[in-house]
Amino acid sequence: MSQVYHSNAKTNVNNREQIQKCSDTNQAIAERFNISKQTASKWRNRGFVTDASSCPKNIEYSVTKLETASLISIRRSSWLALDEVFETLLGQNDAISRSSVYRFFVKHGINQVPAQQKDKAKKFKAYEPGYWSCFKV
Q1: What is the reported pTM?
Q2: Residue 125 burial (CB < 10 Å; 0-12/13-18/19+)?
């Protein structure tokens, strides 16, 4: 399996191995591989030759642990619509957004109503076409 490099990568695995084995100065390595002294120093001092992960080490969520528990319980017990759950939590936390609630639902696998719960989740009764036209204001 080949490694996928990010678009700004100046070195590959072979170059990085050569940099780590080389006994020249950082300046000489930088000139040889056409990279900066910092890059030469970085790869020289690393114990591995693969790219480090670019994902965040600590992700800050706008939803607290208590709110996550309430989100799960509200959604699983009543299967309320996304907007209704969002409005319920909006009173507790102003920093929350509708999209963050949806992402939370997707993450926990509760973004779609199960087939056996769809009848419970329906809010409106189905009427024949033209039913409301008999009521004139």
Answers
A1: 0.51
A2: exposed
